[in-house]
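hi! just following up on the protien thing from before. the input was this:
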Amino acid sequence: MTEHYYSKNPSAAHDEKAVIFETLGLKFRCATDAGVFSRDGLDMGTRILLEALPELSGRALDLGCGWGAVGVALGKRYPGAEILLTDVNERAAELAERNLRDNGVKNARVVCGDGFERVEGAFDLIALNPPIRAGKAVVYALFAGAARRLAPDGALYVVIRKQQGAESAQRYLETLYKKVERVAREKGYWVLRCAKPVDA
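and the predicted 3d structure came back as:
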């Protein structure tokens, strides 16, 4: 079976590297490793997602956090917010913990689990760059799980490339949320804001 960045315990040999990136007006230095998503630095989709997010207060979830780019950036930019990061990949979760610490982020913590497995409570914002290669069933389950975890005025923000199914993803999201809008479009990526879950 081919191993992917969404494997629980990657067997790829460690090959750590430091990456430096700027977003939200701040500069960050983070550690990455083999066996995690976007190990060469901040990927385009995540950058576009971060820059499309509103000012943050309350509680936020970096769903499928990888090495922690979103959670680290949000935690540093909005120290008054409470940030939770989660990923199924144990190596990624360990990197995210280290990157929070190394960037001086004190208002965030990491849990390792599959989707919402170890996530508790409701969130004002959920940010997701979905693991497209894990397949539609996995990705759509994350969309549905997020609908059950939003605070009353909360929103899910999803980034997805048009050529990787943004239009069909939007149609599915519209079955879960009463309000789905495209809030950014850049270099083939769409950022969708999803609010007011149908079953709420």
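The chain has a mean pLDDT of 93.
The helical segments are 44-52, 69-77, 90-102, 136-147, 166-176.
cheers
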